[in-house]
Amino acid sequence: MHELTEDTIIIRPPCEAWSVLVGVTEGCTWGKCKFCGVYNGKELVQRYRVRPWDSIKADIDEAWLYQRTLPRRAFLAGGNALSAPTELLLRILGYLHQRFPQLEQVSSYAKNHDILKKSDDELERLAAAGLAIVYMGLESGSDAVLKYMNKGTRAAGMVRAAKKVMAAGIKLSTYVVLGLGGKMFPDHAIETARALTEMNPDFIRFRSLNFIPNAPLHAEWTAGRFVALRPVEILEEQLYILEHLGPGMTSHVLNDHVSNFADIDGRLPGDMQRITGALKALIADQRIRALEHRNRTSM
Ligand code: SF4
Predict the structure, then answer these.
(1) 148 lines ligand 1 (CB under 6 A)
(2) Which of 31, 156, 170, 203 has the least C-beta neighbours within 10 A?
(3) Domain architecture of the chain: domains with CATH
(4) Are 168 and 158 in contact (CB under 8 A)?
């Protein structure tokens, strides 16, 4: 077994818990989002680098050696593994499918810049080689929120990247952080609904904002400069976003994170009424209305 070091930290979406995890990059090319302390917040957790092919191949071989069941999914790990050179990603995808011929899905995290930097042809080759899904953090559709959070991009760039990756035949799962505008940015909800409508991503995954001690936002929150939403306000924000999506949305909507207050899993447009009905019932519940924000210090 490997000793746990900076090099062996692997962060993955909850839904990839049972996937073969292949560390492609370490850290994140950006690492400056105010709400994120995952790789380098106030303290450096893991610096960015693209791992060498020999190490990646050795990890795939080890995963193959120790597999207990035939894995159907693999995840290319790293804060934004799509930032790796396309030829390396193609080599990894090819080897993964050679070792695990039964694989049905390979996915990775991506920043919008990673998608925009690749040509259409590169993305199409990645799709043909088996890259099925990228997880991209929209976080908010509000440029004011994105700027405050130092996301390093605007909503229009996110929408462009979303359309580009889906046009190449790769599914898009995008994250929205409920409460990211706090009490200061009321346009978070309406602008997020607008960006999601423009994207119509395959998956919309909601998370609720928590203040991670290593993230710069934690200090702003404890100093009272950022005021968090209460649980009922988080639920109201999610309801508002969903009710303001445009017509024609076909996304799969999920609250599949420990930070969420509602259990939601449904497809638009058919499940919209069921989802909004569940949110309305929670919002009307006096026990939930009485809850104050309680912070989780880890995810
Ligand atoms: S939120 Fe994503 S892009 Fe921003 S610093 Fe964290 S890992 Fe990097």
Answers:
(1) no
(2) 156
(3) 18-289 (3.20.20.70)
(4) no
CA separation for the pair 297, 13 (Å, rounded):
18
Q: How far apart are alpha carbons 93 and 76 in whole angstroms?
A: 9
Taking 70 as the threshold, does the pLDDT of residue 5 lie above it? Answer: no
Question: For residue 288, which phi and psi values (nearest 5 degrees)?
Answer: -75, -35
Distance 32 CA to ligand 1 centre (A): 7
Find out whether 49 and 26 touch, Cβ atoms under 8 Å.
Answer: yes
- For ligand 1, whether the C-beta of 138 sits within 6 Å is no
Closest CA to 110 of 92, 130, 136, 88: 136
Q: Give the residue, by CA position, lying nearest to ligand 1 atom 6.
A: 36
Tell whether pTM > 0.90: yes
Answer for the pair 41, 76: CB distance below 8 angstroms, yes or no.
no
Q: Which residues, 6 or more positions from 296, have their beta carbon under 8 angstroms from its beta carbon?
A: 210, 258, 259
What is the separation of C-alpha 247 from the centre of its chain, rounded to a whole number of angstroms? 24
Helices and strands (H and E) in the chain: how many: 11, 10
Quick one: pLDDT at residue 6?
A: 61
Is residue 278 a contact partner of residue 213, using CB atoms and an 8 Å limit?
no
Ligand 1 centre from 188 Cα, in Å?
Answer: 19
pLDDT of residue 131: 98
Q: Looking at residue 11, what is its pLDDT?
A: 85
pLDDT greater than 80 at residue 142: yes
Residue with tokens 């409460």: 179
> Which pairing describes strands 252-254 and 265-267: parallel, antiparallel, or unpaired?
antiparallel
Task: Please report the atom of ligand 1 found closest to the CA of residue 31.
Answer: 5
Which atom of ligand 1 approaches the CA of 35 most closely?
1
Residue listed under structure tokens 């998370």: 207
